[in-house]
C-alpha cells in the first residue's frame, strides 16, 4: 500500500481563506476587529519564524496583530505585567506566549495568568479542564491537536470506534490530542517512553499520532496497513547530502517506510505545522465572536 499524502499546507491555506472571509464579515457586521497579541521572549530562531508566520496569517485574516518581542533576560515579573495589561486590553481577543520560555521564567505561572477566554493556545487549566471534561465546545482547544484532528477526520471520516495511539504525553499535544480523540469516541492509548513493546501498541492502531520529539523514531513496519498517521514532530537533522553543514526537517515518523503501510500520512514539513497556525486564527476569531455575543463557527464544516 502507498499512503495518500495529507497536504496540510493546502488545507491550512484553504482554512485561513475561510477565516479571512469570516473575519471581514465580523468586522463589517459588528465593528469588532479580532485582535491577537503574540509575546516572544528571547532569540530562539525557530520561535521567531513561527511568531512571524502568526503575525502574517493574522494580517491576512484582517485581524489586529501585535507582537511583543522581549529580550531573553526579561524578568518573570515583567512578562507577568505584560500579560496582565493584555488581559485588560479590550482590543485583544487572543493572547499567545510563544514557548519555550527561558529557564528562569516559570511557564505555568505565565500560562495561568492569561485570561481563559483570551487563551487562544488552550493551555490555561480552565480550558484544559473543559476539554478533559468533554466540554470542548466551551473551551479553547490547543491548536496543534485541533488541526491534527481535522486532518484525521478529513482522511478517515467518522472516527467513532477506531483505535488510536498518541505517542507522547505532553500537555501541549499528547494529552489534549487524546482528549479530542476520546471525544470522537475512539479507543485511545497514550504511549510514552516507558511504554512496553511500543511497536506492537502502534501496530494495533487505526490512527497514529506521533508527538514524541524524536526524529524518525516510529518505523514503517510498526504501522498497521491502511492506518492514518499524523506526524506532529518537527526535528531538524543534519543533511550532509545537501552540502556541508546543511540540515533538513523530519518528523517523528520514518515517512518513506510508514507510507508503504499507511492509508494516509502527513509529511513534515507541510503537514500538521501549517494547521497549527490556521487553528490559532480560528481560535482568535472564536474569541472575538464570543466577545461579540455570537455563536462559535464549525471550522471543519467551513472547510467543506
Ligand atoms: N505558545 C505556543 N508555543 C508553541 C506552540 C504552540 O502551539 N503554542 N507550538 C510549537 C511551535 N509552533 C507554533 O508556535 C509551530 C511549529 C511549526 C509550524 C510550522 O508551520 N512548521 C512548518 C515548518 C517550518 C520550518 O521550516 O521550520 C511545517 O511543519 O511545515 C508552525 C507553528 C512550539 N511552541
List keywords for this structure.
single chain, 304 residues, alpha/beta, Rossmann fold, 2 domains, three-stranded parallel sheet, 42% helix, binds ligand LMY7XDAE, Bifunctional protein FolD, EC 3.5.4.9, amino-acid biosynthesis, oxidoreductase, methenyltetrahydrofolate cyclohydrolase activity
Summarize the structure.
The protein is an alpha/beta fold and 304 residues long. It has helices spanning 8-30, 45-60, 76-88, 107-113, 125-132, 143-156, 174-183, 198-203, 255-259, 272-291, 299-303; strands at 4-5, 35-41, 64-70, 94-97, 163-167, 187-191, 207-210, 228-231, 235-238, 247-250, 264-265. It starts with a strand and ends with a helix.
Explain what you see.
The protein is α/β, with parallel strands linked by helices and 304 residues long. The chain folds into 2 domains: 30-115, Rossmann fold (3-Layer(aba) Sandwich), CATH 3.40.50.10860; 143-273, Rossmann fold (3-Layer(aba) Sandwich). Helices cover 42% and strands 16% of the residues. The chain is built from 11 helices and 11 strands. The protein has helices spanning 8-30, 45-60, 76-88, 107-113, 125-132, 143-156, 174-183, 198-203, 255-259, 272-291, 299-303, and strands at residues 4-5, 35-41, 64-70, 94-97, 163-167, 187-191, 207-210, 228-231, 235-238, 247-250, 264-265. The protein has a 6-stranded parallel beta sheet. A 3-stranded parallel beta sheet has the order 3-2-4, sandwiched between helices. A two-stranded antiparallel sheet has the order 9-10. α2 (45-60) crosses α10 and α6 (143-156) crosses α7. The protein is globular, with a radius of gyration of 19 Å. The mean pLDDT is 98. The ligand Nc1nc2c(c(=O)[nH]1)N[C@@H](CN(C=O)c1ccc(C(=O)N[C@@H](CCC(=O)O)C(=O)O)cc1)CN2 binds at residues 46, 49-50, 96-99, 121, 143-144, 234, 249, 268-270, 273-274, 276-277.
Amino acid at each position: 500500500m502507498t499512503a495518500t499524502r495529507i497536504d496540510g499546507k493546502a488545507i491550512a491555506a484553504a482554512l485561513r481563506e475561510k477565516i479571512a472571509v469570516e473575519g471581514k464579515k465580523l468586522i463589517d457586521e459588528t465593528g469588532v476587529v479580532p485582535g491577537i497579541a503574540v509575546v516572544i521572549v528571547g532569540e530562539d530562531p525557530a520561535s521567531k519564524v513561527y511568531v512571524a508566520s502568526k503575525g502574517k496569517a493574522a494580517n491576512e485574516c484582517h485581524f489586529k496583530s501585535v507582537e511583543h518581542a522581549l529580550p531573553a533576560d526579561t524578568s518573570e515579573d515583567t512578562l507577568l505585567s505584560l500579560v496582565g495589561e493584555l488581559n485588560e486590553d479590550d482590543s485583544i481577543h487572543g493572547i499567545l506566549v510563544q514557548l519555550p520560555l527561558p529557564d528562569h521564567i516559570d511557564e505555568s505561572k505565565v500560562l495561568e495568568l492569561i485570561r481563559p477566554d483570551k487563551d487562544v493556545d488552550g493551555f490555561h487549566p480552565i480550558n484544559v479542564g473543559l476539554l478533559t471534561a468533554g466540554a470542548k465546545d466551551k473551551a479553547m482547544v490547543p491548536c496543534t491537536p485541533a488541526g491534527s484532528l481535522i486532518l484525521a477526520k478529513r482522511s478517515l471520516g467518522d472516527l467513532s470506534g477506531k483505535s488510536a495511539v498518541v505517542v507522547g504525553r505532553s500537555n501541549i499535544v499528547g494529552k489534549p490530542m487524546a482528549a479530542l480523540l476520546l471525544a470522537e469516541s475512539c479507543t485511545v492509548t497514550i504511549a510514552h517512553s516507558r511504554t512496553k513493546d511500543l511497536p506492537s501498541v502502534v501496530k494495533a492502531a487505526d490512527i497514529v499520532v506521533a508527538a514524541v520529539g524524536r526524529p524518525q523514531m516510529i518505523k514503517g513496519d510498526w504501522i498497521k496497513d491502511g492506518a492514518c498517521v499524523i506526524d506532529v514532530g518537527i526535528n531538524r537533522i543534519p543533511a550532509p547530502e545537501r552540502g556541508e553543514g546543511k540540515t533538513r526537517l523530519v518528523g517523528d515518523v520514518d515517512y518513506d517506510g510508514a507510507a508503504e503501510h499507511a492509508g494516509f500520512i502527513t509529511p513534515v514539513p507541510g503537514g500538521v505545522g501549517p494547521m497549527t497556525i490556521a487553528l490559532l486564527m480560528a481560535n482568535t476569531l472564536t474569541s472575538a465572536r464570543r466577545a461579540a455575543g455570537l455563536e462559535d463557527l464549525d471550522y471543519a464544516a467551513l472547510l467543506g
